[in-house]
Amino acid sequence: MDIREVARHDRALVRRHWEIGRAADAGRAYDFDVPWEQAWAALCDGRHDRETVLLGAFDDGVMWGAAHVEVNLLDNVSLGSATYHVHPERQRRGFGRALAEASYDVARERGCTRLVTDAYAPVDGDSPGVLFARALGFAVALVDGMKVVDLVETEPTWAALEERIAPRAAGYRVVVWVDRVPEELLDGYCRLNEMFHEQAPMGELEVEAETWDEKRVRSREERNLRIGRREACAGALAADGTLVALTEAITSRSAPERGIQSGTIVDPAHRGHSLGLAVKLANHRQLRARFPRCRVLLTGNADVNAAMNAVNSALGYREVERCLEMQRDLPPAGSRPAENSGAARASAP
Asked: Of the candidates 283, 279, 290, which has an alpha carbon nearest to the alpha carbon of residue 246?
């Protein structure tokens, strides 16, 4: 077995790397994998706030395992993230563990001291991915319920919801936009994004607050358009015009029939007015009007986030699987822990 970095400009190897992830995820409850066209465009374009390293596990010159390592460049620079996939034809042969060890080296070399990974599982049980992560020493820090909603099926319920919350949201004005934050809302948008990690339930995840400014926002917007992403947003304005609630959803040119619900946040000083539900309703309507091919949205909510779970329940989201956000401290350089057991190897993806 040979573990080596996959050059980001090598289209054939990057395609094989992506295909391994697709094959390994084939048993997931819902297909929301990034389409090849968008994955390739995103990788080629790069990011100013994050470095991506691809690792491949090769046997006789053929790649059978794929790891994706990301390191933050602006905030949380001591925290890296990684995902590991092994093709079903080569699972339980040590590829996953070898990739994990190589990912630790990549993260350490870039100054990271901790690593996080996401492991998906059925609503009511574990999965090989969860067992593998535990065998590597990752511990569960936060559990998210992954949910989907059909916008076409639920659209008839929106008017009644809007009528129900209207008295509570009186005094606030909901606005919507696509792709580019209006100049007059930029300061409030940055403020809410900086607030997100402080206010959203993070469980045991050790995450620092982020710093947002115009350069960060505009760079992100420009990159989204370059790689074919479209972002629909809705916000709530207080009486003085301050942006106090925000929600975002992303769809793409390569998969226009589906979208990913990004963050939703309400300023703590303005909670209790159903603003979370108000902005999400407005954004659902905007998606139907501006992106009518987008029928299904996927979102993830921490189990402990009672308020947002209630909002999404009202909107008709249904849980399809769980995402276990797991973290571990990186072992010292040069250390190679012994294999835990045959069972641990058998659970490796």
From this structure: 279
- Token look-up 């989204």 returns 224
Kindly report the backbone phi and psi dihedral angles of residue 125, in degrees, each rounded to the nearest multiple of 5, phi listed first.
-170, 180
Summarised one tens digit per residue, pLDDT across range 56-101 is 999 999 999 999 999 999 999 999 999 999 999 999 999 999 999 9
Q: What domains sit in the chain, N to C, each tagged with a CATH number?
A: 2-113+330-347 (3.40.630.30), 147-322 (3.40.630.30)
First to last CA, the chain: 16
Amino acid letter at 297?
L
- Tokens describing residue 136: 């590597």
Contacts 24+ apart (CB under 8 A), 12-20: 13/56, 13/63, 14/40, 14/43, 14/54, 15/40, 16/56, 16/63, 16/66, 17/54, 17/56, 17/63, 17/66, 18/66, 20/63, 20/64, 20/65, 20/66, 20/85, 20/86, 20/87
Token representation of residue 121: 């599982």
pTM: 0.89
- Closest Cα partner for 87 from 69, 101, 99, 105? 99
Angle at 23 between CA 17 and CA 24, to 5 degrees: 90
Q: Which residues contact 220 (CB under 8 A, 6 or more apart)?
A: 49
Token couple for 248: 């975002």
Q: How far apart are CA 287 and CA 273, in angstroms?
A: 23
